[in-house]
Write a structure and sequence with these properties.
The complex is a heterotrimer of chains A (432), B (270) and C (292). Chain A has 432 residues and is of the alpha/beta class. Chain A is built from 17 helices and twelve strands. In chain A, strands 2-1-3-12-6 form a five-stranded mixed sheet. The chains are: A alpha/beta (432), B mainly alpha (270), C mainly alpha (292).
């Protein structure tokens, strides 16, 4: 027994030595421009982001064969955690060269750790991207993100259900939320199918409504703009009405939401254009969908029929040993290769925010799933009209507070009271 | 006698219901692994024919073998090291018991009350400075020595007769000799129980491996599973399959060792 | 002379056995803990931290989210732990019967849930309790419900599902501990009681429970500790929702550190709040249970 234990002990220690050795090899610096370089990228979703990054890597291999792109699959929550842990422990040697960051979090991260990210002004031509995306990643005039995932919203409709109710898809273009609710009631009455669904206790609708009016939950000076925010009040009021009138179905989580689309439980959804990927997984619905633009507020003048939800961008990390190579890589692929966007569009539904890509014939292909509508052309068109909004440092705090306010309002609390609580919560988290 | 029979029947029925309740989620998980994602979302309860499809998809999308091997290696290394370190300590605390050691034991028990989230960042900083990130050592060091395991061995050692130790000393055995040649063989069930619990915890560990992992090569099974839920759409069939695969080793371990496990726990509870 | 030399040598060895494990814990647990305590005395964002004394701790009392999360966790604790331990006791008593057929199988099946990881079991329960999940379908099917309940978006039902998940996962674990403890109790005690005419439940309450006191105390402390530090299940099942109706303290710490603008100092203070609660509760439980 003793012998076996000793043998085991030696084996364990031996094998750990083997692996401990690996850490030291990373110190070598590269001077020769043609020497092999590896860029590490952290991103998530093998079907979407990772796929796009790997296609970009292929393209860049032809331009600079000595550069290898190493993609490490890192779910968003985990990425935030690892990033912040490393940055706060001042242990940045193991951070990657490039990361994918959700638009909602860019401001928070840059303002908390300004030294950690590389400003891209002058190094990449950002003027060719949809401006609302560039704006999201710009702090104090410096831009940090290469916009990737287009979050421009649209109303995705089941043409067949809508027509069964005696309506047309064009009835849903350029309308107000009140009109949408009216139409929704007609659909429900004539077909028995709910118009739309949303995840309960998530602030998705209020958020996209806010952006459509060009406002957010913070003032210019950074203070919370929740309690007395007329747009927010309207947003909550409309969301509540949609749910209580039966127009909008509440579901418990994301997968249930996708299920309502795939199962035909709802006639439409209003979300970022990336939802088209999920919609298209249900083969049996081919040809039955269509896209219209987003409803706007009736009595808020700044409100337009365009908004954004979600979306992300690539950021270059300051700890990178080859920041210039990383920037060049991004510039030549996501910021310069029409071919890249042409490749990833049909397979993953990833829609460009880089406007030259949108001019490719691939984007003006009629899409069979959507009854021949050139949805990508339309969606890129929408992206050009989305109001610019700065999400701010305390975005997540505010989003959570509004989510909570929404669930309280659904249970009967007055909107004013719920928003007052939300403001208090956010101010508490903002204080030190 | 009818009442007695009645009670017995109630007992069996109760136990069967509890067992069904315990096992049902596993059934759900295994059935899910054989079905298409859309069907699972719709609530399908019966075995489907999609198992091979799911296996194929999973194998092409993720590095399954790599993650499995990483989890296995880390868990085994962790278990061996933990058994060694904690059994020595538990034995020491009991056989050489004195006031000082009792106080130390009490102090060590405090460490169980610290939420991991609190020490995560300072620990990371330490490991980063020690260049232990992304290494097997890095994965296992924080969980080698746990107050619970030390306590477990100490309690189990209470039944180990001190006379045996004294006799062995007279026979000329050194202290460590006594431990390895006499204590360990006799206390095999205790080691078995400790091995099972430690392996399970190490295998399922999530938070620390997440932070210390820096490359795709070091991914472990729990991390792989959350990776599957991170996309815009989750393929439930693959998810259930990977959960099943992840649960298999601990299940097998428990099935084969459960008698020893109960014996081992028995020994600690005297 | 030789005797005291020997006893000193033995004493030295005694410490040698113990020191490696103790060192590990000191370096990898206590040192970060102290680091975290120092952190809790600082406030600020990201890496801009400055000394603030006990301000963070004072802030705790004004923090509605923190207080709600404490309330949530205490609700879980008060309901889940007693029910689970009682269940485990009853099960262990049943399984202790040598005449029971299929004991091994029952025992294995009851312990099975412990083989899953916390995230896996939470994911499974999430599927089971979804709107068109099995539970709803079954309950509507047999007529107990008129329409499906949205379990995980309801402030009360969501807590119920969380408690159910935890109970499912940990009952087997505690059952094994009690089973082991029961096998220590001399059969003759039960025999004598039976001859005296004591019913099964009387035996349970007057013999089993008092004799198992040390084990019960151990499991109570372990369960209390576990529930106060609850994280994975809540995060996977409801993410703290609806609103903050199911938010746990650990999850709040996680949010403060990684989701919101990082406030590590304040997060550390919240961690210490958990520590204090666990320590106080453990102390109370030990005192109530008598000396171990």
């Amino acid at each position: 027994m003793k012998k076996t234990l000793y043998v085991l002990l030696v084996l364990v220690l031996g094998s750990t030595m083997l692996f401990a050795g690996g850490a030291e090899e990373k110190k070598a610096e590269v001077v020769d421009p043609n020497a092999p370089i590896t860029l590490t990228v952290w991103c998530w979703d093998p079907m979407f982001n990772i796929y796009a990054m790997e296609e970009a890597a292929k393209i860049y291999k032809d331009i600079k064969p000595n550069v290898t792109i190493n993609v490490v699959e890192t779910p968003w929550n985990d990425l935030q955690q690892k990033l912040i842990t490393s940055l706060s422990a001042n242990a940045t040697e193991n951070l990657p060269d490039i990361i994918l960051m959700q638009d909602n979090a860019i401001q928070k991260n840059v303002m908390t750790y300004p030294e950690a990210f590389v400003p891209l002004n002058g190094k990449i031509d950002l003027s060719q991207f949809a401006q609302f995306k560039v704006d999201v990643g710009t702090i104090d005039g410096k831009s940090y993100g290469v916009p990737f995932d287009n979050g421009a919203t649209g109303t995705f409709l089941r043409r067949d259900i809508v027509e069964k109710a005696g309506l047309k898809v064009s009835d849903f273009n350029d309308i107000t939320w009140e009109r949408f609710i009216e139409l929704g009631k007609i659909v429900k009455q004539k077909t028995g199918i709910a118009m739309i669904s949303t995840v309960a206790n998530e602030p998705d609708f209020p958020m996209l409504m806010l952006q459509s009016a060009g406002t957010w939950m913070f003032n210019e000076d950074g203070s919370a703009y929740i309690k007395d925010n007329p747009v927010l009040k309207e947003a909550l009021r409309i969301t509540k009405e949609m749910v209580q009138s039966g127009v909008c179905l509440l579901v418990p989580d994301w997968n249930a939401y996708i299920a309502t689309l795939n199962n035909g439980t709802v006639a439409s959804t209003i979300n970022g254009c990336w939802i088209s990927g999920s919609i298209q997984t249900e083969e049996s619905q081919k040809g039955k969908w269509a896209v219209a633009n987003t409803p706007r507020f009736a009595n808020i003048s700044s409100s337009v029929n365009y908004s954004s939800q979600g979306g992300s961008g690539w950021m270059v990390m300051a700890n990178s040993k080859h920041p210039d190579v990383a920037i060049d890589f991004l510039a030549k692929t996501f910021g310069g290769s029409v071919a890249l966007y042409e490749t990833i569009l049909p397979t993953s539904g990833a829609i460009a925010t880089w406007l030259p890509a949108a001019e490719s014939p691939v984007y003006s292909t009629p899409i069979e799933f959507f009854g021949g509508q050139k949805i990508y052309e339309d969606l890129v068109g929408f992206a050009g009209k989305v109001p610019n909004v700065k999400y701010g440092v305390f975005n997540y705090e505010a989003r959570d507070a509004i989510a909570r306010a929404l669930s309280e309002v659904m249970r009967g609390t007055t909107i004013d009271a719920a928003l007052a609580t939300a403001q208090k919560n956010v101010e508490f988290l903002m204080s030190e | 006698m009818n009442k007695r029979q009645g009670t017995v029947i109630v007992k069996y029925v109760f136990l069967i219901i509890i067992c069904l309740f315990s096992v049902f989620p596993f059934y759900f998980m295994v059935v899910g692994a054989t079905n298409k994602s859309v069907d699972i979302i719709k609530g399908r309860l019966f075995f489907g024919t999609f198992l091979f499809e799911n296996i194929k998809t999973l194998a092409t999308n993720v590095r399954l073998g790599n993650a499995f091997w990483n989890s296995l290696r880390n868990a085994l290394a962790n278990t061996v090291a933990a058994l060694l370190v904690c059994s020595l300590a538990g034995y020491g605390f009991q056989i050489y018991r004195d006031k000082g050691k009792d106080t130390l034991m009490g102090l060590l028990l405090l460490s169980m009350m610290v939420p991991f989230a609190a020490i995560m960042v300072p620990l990371f900083r330490m490991f980063s400075q020690a260049k232990l990130l992304d290494t097997t050592m890095g994965f296992i060091l924080p969980t080698i020595s746990t107050a619970f395991l030390i306590f477990f061995f100490r309690q189990s050692s209470e039944s180990f007769p001190i006379e045996t130790v004294q006799a062995a000393r007279v026979d000329g055995l050194g202290e460590f000799g006594i431990f390895f040649r006499i204590y360990v063989p006799i206390m095999a069930p205790t080691f078995a129980a400790a091995a099972i619990v430690t392996f399970m915890n190490a295998w399922n560990n999530y938070l620390w491996p997440l932070i210390i992992m820096q490359s795709q090569d070091s991914q472990t099974m729990p991390l792989l599973i959350t990776g599957l839920t991170a996309g815009y759409t989750t393929d439930y069939g693959i998810l259930m399959l990977s959960v099943t695969i992840t649960t298999l080793p601990t299940l097998i371990l428990f099935f084969t060792q459960q008698k020893r496990f109960v014996e081992g726990v028995l020994g600690s509870v005297k | 002379m030789a005797k005291s030399n020997l006893s000193r040598k033995i004493n030295l060895y005694g410490w040698l056995f113990v020191i490696p494990a103790a060192l590990f814990i000191f370096i990898l647990n206590f040192y970060p803990m102290i680091s975290a305590f120092l952190l809790s005395l600082q406030s600020g964002r990201g890496n801009n931290l400055k000394f603030a004394g006990l301000k963070n701790y004072a802030r705790l009392f004004e923090d509605e989210m923190f207080l709600t999360s404490v309330g949530n966790v205490i609700t879980y604790l008060v309901i889940q732990v007693p029910i689970m331990l009682l269940f485990a006791l009853v099960l262990a008593t049943m399984l202790n019967d040598s005449k029971l057929k299929g004991r091994g199988i029952f025992r294995t099946m009851i312990f099975l849930p412990c083989a899953t990881s916390l995230v896996s079991s939470a994911m499974i329960f999430k599927s089971l309790f979804s709107i068109d999940g099995i539970i709803n379908t079954a309950l509507v099917g047999i007529g107990l419900l008129v329409e499906p309940i949205s379990w995980l978006t309801h402030p009360v039902w969501a807590k119920f599902v969380i408690i159910l998940t935890i109970t499912w996962r940990w009952t087997g674990y505690n059952t094994v501990f009690y089973l082991a403890g029961l096998q220590n109790i001399n059969r003759n005690v039960y025999e004598a009681a039976r001859i005296d005419g004591a019913s099964a439940s009387r035996q349970f309450f007057s013999i089993t429970i008092p004799l198992l006191k040390p084990v019960i105390l151990l499991t109570t402390i372990m369960s209390t500790n576990g529930t106060l530090q609850l994280f994975d299940e809540v995060r996977t099942l409801t993410n703290g929702g609806p609103g903050i109706a199911t938010l746990s303290i650990s999850q709040y710490i996680y949010n403060l550190s990684f989701m919101y603008n990082p406030q590590f100092g304040y997060a550390a203070a919240v961690s210490y709040a958990i520590l204090v609660m666990v320590a106080v509760l453990s102390f109370v439980q030990i005192k109530m249970g008598g000396k171990r």
